[in-house]
Structure formats: structure tokens, C-alpha cells
Amino acid sequence: QVQVVESGGGTVQPGESRRLSCVVSGGLRELWVMGWYRQPPGAQRGFVAAITNVGQTNYARAVEGRFTISRDSAKNTVYLQMNALKPEDTAVYYCKVDDYGTPDRTFWGQGIQVTVSS
User: Fold this and answer.
1) Which conformational region is residue 76 in: left (phi greater than 0), alpha (psi within -120 to 50 degrees), or beta?
2) Across 21-28, average pLDDT
3) Parallel, antiparallel, or unpaired: how do β-strands 10-12 and 112-116 relate?
4) Which of 108, 111, 117, 56 is nearest to 89 (CA)?
5) 50-62 pLDDT, tens per residue?
6) Residues sharing a CB contact under 8 Å with residue 55, sequence separation 6 or more, in sequence order
7) Given this model, what pLDDT does residue 1 score?
8) CA–CA distance from 77 to each of 7, 16, 42 (Å)?
9) Least confident residue range of 27-36, 39-48, 71-80
10) Gap between the Cα atoms of 20 and 79, Å rounded
11) Greatest CA span in the chain, whole angstroms?
12) Per-residue pLDDT tens digits for 59-104
């Protein structure tokens, strides 16, 4: 069974940086996409960034230029480097894994809080 565990959350001040990590265990197949989503207080969960097994990336407009998603295949880990954080980045951040095959599978982490506040 695939498990997804996020780490790196916490409280930071506006303008600071933070790196989230997502470790996937249990084995994925050849085609996958790993992404970060976030759910601000009182709002719906939304897309932040994603990376494919071949390194293609995609970002939400609100974070483009400030956040960077990357992967370390040897460690089965995906990172989200968040720079120039703003109070509106405050949210619970979730790691999502889409593992493509027969059948397709989707896994979510438990979520981790990031609070940007002075």
C-alpha cells in the first residue's frame, strides 16, 4: 500500500521561505504525477503545483515565480520550496500522488499546516 507523508510545515513571517517535503513509500509504477494542493481556512482545496515522473512541472498562477516543485527520485521525495511567503499562503498543504496504470490510483497525505503571520 502506498503511503504519503508530508513534513516541513510551521509558522513563518511574511517574506520568509519554507520547504515542504512529501515522502512516498510503497512503490509507484512508471507513470505518475505528484502534486501539492492547499486548503486555506474556510475555503476549498486548490491546486498549487505538480511534477511528473519525467520532470515536467505546472504551477498555479498565485504561486508561480515564488514556489518551486522538485523531486528526488532516489529518495521517493517531492519538495515544495516556498519563497516570499504571504499571509494568503496560509493553508493546510496536502501532497497528492496520481499513479497511472491498471487501475489508476490516487493517494493523499494527511496534510500539514503552514501559517504565514507577523
Assistant:
1) left
2) 89
3) parallel
4) 117
5) 999 999 999 999 9
6) 71
7) 81
8) 11, 23, 29
9) 27-36
10) 6
11) 48
12) 999 999 999 999 998 888 999 999 999 999 999 999 999 998 888 9
* Rounded alpha-carbon distances, angstroms, from residue 5 to 17, 61, 72: 20, 25, 15
Distance CA(89)–CA(94), nearest Å, equals 13
- Give the pLDDT band of residue 26 (cuts 50, 70, 90): confident
| Cβ neighbours, 10 Å, residue 15 | 11
In the beta sheet, which residues pair with residue 46?
38
Cα dihedral across residues 58, 42, 113, 18: positive or negative: positive
Instruction: Count other C-beta atoms under 10 Å from residue 106's C-beta.
Output: 11
